[in-house]
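User: Continuing from earlier, I have the next pair ready.

Assistant: Great, send them over.

User: Here they are, in order.

Assistant: Folding the first of the pair now:
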Amino acid sequence: MEELAIRVEHVSKEYRLGAIGGATLKGEIQSKLAKMFHKEDPNLKIGEKAYGKNERFLALNDLSFDIKKGETVGIIGRNGAGKSTILKLICRVTAPTEGNIYLNGRITSMLEVGTGFHPELTGRENVYLNGAILGMSKAEIEKKFDEIVEFSEVGQFIDTPVKRYSSGMKVKLAFAVASHLDSDIMIMDEVLAVGDIAFQNKCIDRMKKVAEEEGRTILYVSHNMATVKNLCSRCVVLSHGQVAFEGPTAEAIAIYMQDKNLDDKTFFDVSGAKRQRKNSNRHLLKNLHMYQSPSSVFEYGEIFPFRIEWESENSDERLLMKMIINGIDLTPVGVIFGGELKHCKGRNTAEFKFDTSYLVPGKYTVDIILYDEDKSGNMMYHDRATSMRFTVEHGEKSLKLKHWFKDWGNAVLPCIEQINGDDNNV
């Protein structure tokens, strides 16, 4: 146990659904009366289900894994897999129904952005408050105060009440406090989801430093596979409250991203899909279709056509399209521009074809983007959808490429054209 930082041993967590339905006593009485007289519960939101007292939900089911000291481990899985539940159990926010969790060292946790921050207090006062909540003494906070503020990048606003901070500023200050605590184990749950890219990279570098140089253990939960791949040496994949896989990060991400239901799918309805970026609603993508293919699996070098369908409010605007190809971990591989789209008011379609010989064999996802450019060349997004997936498999043409992915990445780039110099100028 001396070499272990965390041991999760046959842990299960069960919740009673609908045991308490109202946020207030009045609401609870209203719900009880509605049930007695077989009427609709006035406190339920649209689409919500009323649960009986005896209905239970097993969030974690006989979960076991070990984390050694100094390891940086990611916990990944789809929504509802049990990631946040196990973190709350490890942090002792709640207790397991069955099983045991053994901890070896002092813990710092960030399960919610700005947990412990008081909106009426200034950033300076909240550093002391949050530091005290995390277990730091006043002397520790004073010693590291300048370093915390410098790392947080909010020094100009440190004496401003936190209620006036943006969500990004809050997470910067909260992470700065947590990362400078002298703890043995750091637990982070989607803590970098709000910060900007530059600050995310800064946080990852900080976590790498404390893991490698100070020997701290880091447990990191995120849906951003790029940061997981960059930070974690090992991952635990959760599925329905159980360990689906435990091992190297690359294999874990591949298992997490795998969806057998999509392997043969060629039609992707994106009309109701969650958008990565807020759109203008003037041009909205409806579906993507590999219309001449029986499946989304292609042999290396094969050309496959696809069709996009979108809806436009007008035909006056200039509309452009591009597609970003991502690897299995959602890291961008390259971008392809589809040029200007002819369109009218209402439903529109456009067809394209793609040459798979520019990619090494593997699984890929595609972002389709509708956009325009202003006079300065700045891109103005209309819509962006991530749904289409395809697989490039080895074939006769790809046998010589089997070593490329490891050494040179996903894309197969054209050769550089050699230009001979003018002998008269030598």
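And the other member of the pair:
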Amino acid sequence: MADLHASSTARPELGEHTRWNFVVIITEASAFLIGLAWVDPVVVLPLFIHELVPSTVLIGLVTTLQRLGYTLPQLPMAAILGHRPRRLPYLRWGVFLGRLPFILFVIYLWTRGVSNPALVIAFMMIGFVSVSAGNGAVAVPWQDIIAKSIPSSLRGRFFGTMQFVPALATFGVGFAVRWALGQSGPGFPLNYTILFTLAAAFFTISTIGCAVVREPIRPALDRPQSLRELIGGALPLLRRRREFRSLVLVTVLGFGLSLVMPFYIVYAKTELGVPPGMAGIYIWAAVLGGAPLSLLWGYINDRRGPRAVLRGGCILAAAVPMLALFIPSVTSLAGAHRALPYLFAVVFLAGGSTRGAFWMGTNNYLYELATHEQRPRYIALLSTFAAPRTLFPAAIGWILTFLPYRLVFALFVLLGVSAALLTWRMPQPSVDPKEAAEAGRLDTP
């Protein structure tokens, strides 16, 4: 197969619906990510939970349930969609039904408040997990439509723009969050109710965007593939394809570390005495770190391929806990205690782009591994095999009940370094010749 990244200057060949989907998908995804920023899972959501029930276990559990909700529907959806050329209806209904419980949760907050913390937590978990499960159910058709309509030579710019646009908007969100959670804000619980409402509004815009996406029709499997067949072929695929196996390992270690970012804000508040109003500044820091680097990741992807993007994400994943350990120690030795809350923003500056790097690198590496016919299976199996990463937040929340933060952060450093070393052994992604021959084609998807 020719090197897909040999020339970054060649004009990409546009396919069916490329221009339309480039704009529409970036718009709807940006709306969703902006909505998520109002209830930022790294900053806002952990503080809301801590106001109701001060438990690191619960904070980790919510994150874990969200990731499981995203992972579990994907294999059944791959079995449902494998032989269907049209996947768009499943995208439209999935996002609508998945986001409806979150909107109902917002209505509950406006009408009942937080007088019953246990019920609020339960309703909140249902709302957030439902959004994740809906996104998981549509992950296969959504990614398949992207792979079919966005050429590989444009995907770095596509995902980079998708991350850059909401990052700029999130900078403004940071001002609003700082005001809402600060002393001059409306106070608890109205401050969080307003933030959840704004999130629901942007989720609605995203849902409308999914309804107007256009789907190119490409080859599909000639017969239905059962869930049992998908599961039965999972381990043989993992053993046979070194590229896929490497991607799974890097995703578990590297992407898993990006999911533990919520613990840094809790550490800053409980261990370092950082006031809650700093949450807005930390969101700004994450944006300032993520926005420029999203464009850089896109350039690297189109120039050197997704493997280089994954390597960069792993290096940053190791750097974040190192900074969380280093900054408090340095400020303590220098007697600069007042500067600590602001200097600690560097942790979020570095961590702001890790998830974006893994998201872009993982998706683009995966798209180049499979034919059109086999892509739904690859998408679902990657999430399934990488499911152990969803246990990271809950496991870390439990570990923090008996181990100090500093020791746990040191463990994060080791995991990040291990993931980075793995990327140097990853092969360049390519379609399996056997699958391509069975599909009657020798080109890449």
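Worth noting for the second one:
The radius of gyration is 21 Å. Residues 1-10, 441-445 have pLDDT under 50 and may be disordered.
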